[in-house]
Design goal:
This protein has about 230 residues and is α/β, with parallel strands linked by helices. The protein has two domains: about 1-140 and about 150-190, Leucine Aminopeptidase, subunit E, domain 1 (3-Layer(aba) Sandwich), CATH 3.40.220; about 195-229, no CATH class. Helices cover about 40% and strands about 15% of the residues. The chain is built from seven helices and seven strands. It has helices spanning about 30-40, 40-50, 85-100, 120-135, 165-190, 200-215, 225-229; strands spanning about 1-5, 15-25, 25-30, 60-65, 70-75, 105-110, 155-160. Strands 1, 2, 3, 4, 5, 6 and 7 form a seven-stranded mixed sheet that branches. Strand 6 (about 105-110), helix 4 and strand 7 form a beta-alpha-beta unit. Helix 4 (about 120-135) runs parallel beside helix 5 (about 165-190). The radius of gyration is 21 Å and the shape is elongated.
């Protein structure tokens, strides 16, 4: 999975899908408002029909929105704007990632990271979005003889920030989140392995490999005799 950061207007994104938030009741986020303006009120028209209320976790995928360069627009319900906190934010990111992955959007530009989350800054929103996306798509199939393949899986996602001034902070948060996500994935993989595979010797080799990749890491591997002592 590839993650990138950028700043730019949603109507100018040439991508498989642009993801924007809708607050409850049927209120446009800033990114959704820009799409609505450029499409001559198309988003508002869809919402007035009652297709989406903006409740947390609701999604609606739109095709060929007028004036938009992206192939599709994914509307994601975010609940009430003033009530958007940590748990709600995680929930909407999870739902957005699942929908993108299941509907054949191999790449997307996501504007959910621009929304205000109570008491949180840009770096936190980016970190949580990357970590949550990786966790949502986690799949352990190393031991399966016949693996289930998604026909057009999500492979690349761009998370956005509101201004270019935030790019450096957001890119640093992206790098940190990807490292954390790699560590979480390794821990999950090891815990999912059966005991006859994940032996002490196997864990020792994994530990040595990690230490060879990171100069600040070290490990001391004890033999069976040393353990008995």
């Amino acid at each position: 999975m590839e993650f990138n950061i950028k700043s730019g207007h949603p109507e100018k994104q040439r991508t498989a899908c642009v993801v924007v938030g809708i607050y409850e009741p049927r209120r446009l986020s800033e990114a959704a408002r820009r799409l609505d303006d450029i499409s001559d009120g198309y988003i508002s028209f869809i919402l007035r029909r009652g297709d989406l209320e903006g409740k947390p976790g609701q999604t609606l995928l739109l095709h060929s929105v007028p004036g938009i360069l992206a192939d599709r627009v994914l509307l994601v319900g975010c609940g009430r704007e003033r009530e958007l906190g940590d748990n709600q934010y995680h929930k909407i990111i999870i739902q957005a990632i699942r929908t993108l992955h299941e509907t054949g959007s191999m790449e997307a530009v996501c504007y959910l990271t621009e929304m205000n989350v109570r008491g949180r800054d840009t770096a936190w929103r980016i970190r949580q979005a990357v970590e949550t996306a990786q966790s949502t798509l986690y799949l352990f199939d190393q031991l399966k003889s016949k693996k289930e393949n998604t026909r057009r899986p999500l492979r690349k996602i761009v998370f956005t920030v509101t201004s270019r001034r935030e790019l450096n902070i957001a890119e640093q948060a992206n790098r940190e989140a990807q490292k954390i996500a790699e560590g979480v994935k390794l821990a999950k993989d090891l815990s999912n392995l059966p005991a006859n595979h994940c032996t002490p010797a196997y864990l020792a080799e994994k530990a040595k490999k990690l230490c060879s990749l990171h100069e600040k890491l070290s490990c001391n591997i004890l033999t069976e005799t040393e353990l008995k002592q």
